């Protein structure tokens, strides 16, 4: 019964979305306040209905309702409760429901927190949101309905893919979807502004918090995905340039460019056309990502089950929304005349370079991702584009961005003198070079990428510190320290995010250049050296789990004779799914992780043991979280909090 | 004991790597290092986007053994890879060749960067030399002076 209610709620949400997409648009054209006022309640209603639908599907999973085809395909009575809940979105249909839930949530938030938006703009924004919801709800109801029933329910289900039965599943997709879908808000703002024919500084101010929210969720989502791959897949890799990873990375690159471009629109009323294009492209890449993941067009570790009709539908959605928006952009290009004037060297031009590097980097990733498809269609060549290509093609952009960022961030608006701007950075440059030399001395014989990465990381972090220090004004040291604490949160957010970028570079470089690895066959009781440690395989035994049996090894790690850790790598076999997973044992540390994997028994009585020392591994994800934290700080800046619920000053009659 | 020495040598030479089993590894450390480096560029054909160095699949194991056999037989890096490509097609290469249409792939990035840079340069130059808003007229300047005096 509850499941039927959920299904009905979904259909109702579709109807509400149709109304939300059409009526407020007409109202905004005709300046009809009644029709425009429909947008807000429609958005709220849509969210509530989809929440009910989502709740119903979760209820079906939690109560093991095997009359639902989705639950049969993806669940099992013995599956732990966490994965019953998280498994709601561990499949195509359920994850689409999560998608539209996030979409309606953003629309409802635009209604609840968008009090500062002018009525016509808000009506149009919600209408565009509604249109996107119509498209995706139609996609769900017609091709990917999660509420399909089976006439003869089986006694039990097929269990979920064991690789997904991990806490990462509870966090990675929700954050990722909040990010993807949040970019639809930027898209809606762009299209609404284009329909209205007015893009001004105020628009830049309004679009920024929504883009920031989407960006920071996407950052967290990608960081968590990388962390999950690191500990789940059994060899400590963290990025594979897999098409689905690229599908999340491309919107992130564009969203970063959009974030910075919107600043220029807000502060200087320049780069309007650029920003509009970026807003449209950001959501466009979100949709392309959806297409890549769900159409089966490209093979990937991540992809959902492929189905050509679904692929065609998503392609149609992509064509309608992005094509329509770009057409609108072309028609309204005249309204985007910029007013600001800026010199060849200025913060605006620095941000233009930033936009250029990020957008071309995204383009490179895009071309690499679809090239196998293009080559097959156009020339009948079956070829692969893998990590070697992406690393070679993408690294120069990271290099360029990292070098320019600290200086560009402190350039004055409108007109700057490069020599004057560079002066405070002499110290940072010296520090970076010194750090590089130190790294080179400590790790001589390893890849030259190491010292270069260290230099870039130190350059970025020192640059962020200089940025803050300069903002603290001039004068006595004590005064400047005091002023530092009183800086607006947005300044701290910016410094934190930029420093986080440096930390990410450091983590990546450390992991790829300085890792230590060891592969051997080990019998129970034997030990071997691993870097400064000595590892001993003490015991191997079988342990049952809720829906698996595990072969767990007990390995003792010692340093200089003293016991440092006891780690338990395992290999799990899931009988229902018929799959095995490797559970690596990881001991995290500030200076690096110890990563142990136990494999199959070898002829001769031993076990294949793989061990790694991963230096500074956790700094990679710390850097990602720093960037997201910077975003949160910026988002909670006073100007956004005040604007939302500002009390109007009470007028005092003049004497 | 020899395994210990071998593994130690690998630990000093190798980048992080993955699914190689102890019984596959070549006795000669430098040959094994070559094999590891080359494996990272070869695709596991039955997996989804993994190299044979990463994958645990049986086919990946077979390809790793094949590669090591060629290296042991004295092939150079290019010859060993060419041997495998001759049998499995260019699909097995993770780094696409620069032959024919693939040039578009490799040059697209630099071309876009160059094109974008030229565009940005031209637009920014035009913006930089755009005339600023005209200053105040003489009458307005006089008014401002008067107002400031008050």
Features:
heterodimer; A: 655 residues; alpha+beta; six-stranded antiparallel beta sheet; four-stranded antiparallel beta sheet; 10 strands; 11% strand; B: 150 residues; mainly alpha; 6 helices
Instruction: Kindly report the average pLDDT value of chain A.
Output: 89
Helix percentage range of chain B:
55-70%
Oligomer: heterodimer
What distance lies between the first and last C-alpha atoms of chain B, to the nearest angstrom? Answer: 96 Å
Strand segment count of chain B: 0
Shape type of chain B: rod-shaped
Q: What percentage of amino acids of chain B are in beta strands?
A: under 5%
Biggest sheet descriptor of chain B = none
**What integer value in Å does the Rg of chain A equal?**
27 Å
| DSSP E strands of chain A, number | 10
The pLDDT mean of chain B sits at: 79
Rg from Cα of chain B: 31 Å
Dominant shape of chain A:
globular
Greatest contact pair? A-B, 67 and 55 residues
Q: Low-confidence stretches of chain A at least 5 residues in length (pLDDT < 50)?
A: none
Strand content of chain A: 5-15%
- Terminus-to-terminus distance of chain A: 69 Å
Structure notes:
The complex is a heterodimer of chains A (655) and B (150). Chain A is an alpha+beta fold and 655 residues long. Chain A has helices at residues 2-30, 33-37, 39-62, 69-74, 81-86, 92-113, 119-143, 167-196, 201-232, 243-268, 272-295, 308-331, 347-379, 387-410, 418-422, 426-442, 449-471, 477-485, 489-513, 617-635, 638-645, and strands spanning 516-522, 527-530, 533-544, 549-559, 562-567, 570-574, 579-583, 585-587, 592-601, 607-615. Chain A is 64% helix and 11% strand. The model of chain A has no long low-confidence stretch (mean pLDDT 89). Chain B is an all-alpha fold. Chain B is 59% helix and 0% strand. In chain B, helix 2 crosses helix 3 and helix 3 packs across helix 4. Chain B is rod-shaped and about 95 Å long. The N and C termini of chain B lie far apart (96 Å). Chains A and B meet through helix 13, helix 14, helix 19, strand 1 and strand 2 of A and helix 1 and helix 5 of B.
């Amino acid at each position: 019964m509850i499941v039927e209610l959920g299904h009905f709620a979904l259909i109702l949400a579709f109807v509400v979305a149709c109304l939300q997409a059409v009526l407020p648009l007409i109202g905004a054209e005709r300046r009809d306040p009644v029709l425009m006022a429909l947008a807000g309640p429609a958005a709220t209603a849509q969210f509530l209905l989809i929440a009910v639908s989502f709740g119903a599907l979760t209820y079906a999973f939690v109560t093991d309702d095997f009359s639902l085809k989705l639950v049969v395909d993806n669940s099992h009575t013995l599956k732990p409760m966490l994965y019953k809940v998280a498994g709601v979105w561990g499949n195509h249909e359920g994850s689409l429901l999560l998608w539209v839930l996030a979409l309606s949530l953003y629309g409802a938030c635009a209604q609840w927190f968008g009090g500062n938006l002018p009525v016509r703009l808000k009506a149009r924004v919600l209408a565009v949101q509604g249109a996107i919801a119509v498209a995706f709800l139609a996609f769900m109801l017609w091709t990917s309905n999660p509420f399909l029933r089976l006439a003869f329910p089986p006694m039990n289900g097929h269990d979920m893919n064991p690789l997904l039965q991990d806490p990462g599943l509870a966090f990675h997709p929700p954050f990722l979807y909040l990010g993807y879908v949040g970019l639809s808000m930027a898209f809606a703002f762009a299209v609404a502004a284009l329909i209205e024919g007015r893009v001004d500084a105020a628009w830049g101010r309004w679009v920024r918090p929504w883009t920031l929210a989407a960006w920071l969720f996407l950052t967290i989502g990608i960081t968590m995905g990388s962390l999950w791959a690191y500990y789940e897949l059994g060899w400590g890799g963290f990025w594979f340039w897999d098409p689905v990873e690229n599908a999340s990375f491309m919107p992130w690159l564009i969203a970063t460019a959009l974030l910075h471009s919107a600043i220029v629109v807000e502060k200087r009323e320049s780069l309007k056309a650029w920003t509009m294009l970026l807003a449209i492209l950001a959501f466009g890449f979100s949709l392309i990502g959806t297409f890549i993941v769900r159409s089966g067009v490209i093979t990937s570790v991540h992809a959902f089950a492929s189905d050509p009709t679904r692929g065609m539908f998503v392609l149609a959605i992509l064509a309608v929304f992005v094509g329509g928006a770009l057409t609108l952009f072309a028609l309204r290009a005249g309204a985007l005349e910029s007013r600001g004037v800026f010199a060849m060297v200025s913060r605006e031009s620095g941000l233009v370079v930033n936009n250029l590097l990020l957008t071309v980097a995204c383009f490179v990733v895009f071309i690499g991702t679809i090239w196998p498809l293009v080559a097959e269609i156009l020339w009948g060549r079956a070829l692969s584009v893998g990590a070697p290509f992406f690393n070679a093609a993408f690294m120069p952009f990271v290099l360029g961005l990292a070098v320019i960022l600290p200086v560009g961030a402190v350039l004055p608006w409108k007109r700057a003198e490069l020599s004057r701007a560079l002066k405070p950075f002499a110290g940072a440059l010296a520090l970076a070079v010194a750090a590089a030399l130190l790294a080179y001395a400590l790790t001589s014989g390893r890849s030259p990428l190491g010292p270069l990465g260290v230099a870039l990381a130190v350059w970025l972090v020192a640059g962020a510190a200089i940025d803050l220090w300069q903002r603290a004004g001039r004068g006595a040291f004590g005064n400047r320290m005091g002023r530092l604490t009183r800086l607006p949160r947005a300044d701290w957010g910016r410094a934190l995010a930029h420093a986080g970028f440096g930390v990410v570079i450091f983590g990546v470089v450390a992991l790829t250049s300085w890792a230590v690895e060891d592969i051997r066959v080990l019998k129970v009781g034997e030990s071997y050296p691993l870097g400064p440690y000595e590892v001993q395989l003490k015991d191997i035994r079988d342990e049952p789990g809720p829906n698996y049996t595990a072969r767990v090894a007990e390995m003792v790690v010692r340093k200089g004779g003293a016991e440092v850790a006891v780690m338990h790598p395992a290999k799990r076999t899931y009988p229902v799914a018929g799959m095995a997973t490797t559970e690596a044992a990881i001991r995290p540390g500030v200076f690096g992780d110890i990563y142990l994997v136990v494999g199959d028994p070898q002829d001769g009585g031993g076990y294949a043991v793989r061990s790694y020392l991963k230096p500074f591994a956790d700094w990679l994800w710390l850097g990602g979280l720093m960037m997201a934290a910077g975003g949160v700080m910026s988002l909670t800046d006073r100007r956004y909090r005040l604007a939302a619920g500002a009390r109007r000053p009470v007028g005092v009659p003049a004497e | 004991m020899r395994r210990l020495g071998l593994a130690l040598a690998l630990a000093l030479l190798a980048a992080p790597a993955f699914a190689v089993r102890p019984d596959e590894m070549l006795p000669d450390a430098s040959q094994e290092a070559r094999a590891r480096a080359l494996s990272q560029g070869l695709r596991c054909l039955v997996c989804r986007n993994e190299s044979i160095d990463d994958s645990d699949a049986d086919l990946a194991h077979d390809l790793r053994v094949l590669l090591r056999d060629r290296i042991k037989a004295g092939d150079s890096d290019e010859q060993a890879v060419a041997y495998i490509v001759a049998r499995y097609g260019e699909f097995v290469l993770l780094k696409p060749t620069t032959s024919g249409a693939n040039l578009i792939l490799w040059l697209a990035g630099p071309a876009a960067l160059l094109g974008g840079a030229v565009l940005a340069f031209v637009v920014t130059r035009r913006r930089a030399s755009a005339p600023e808003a005209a200053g105040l007229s003489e009458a307005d300047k006089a008014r401002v002076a008067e107002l400031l005096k008050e």
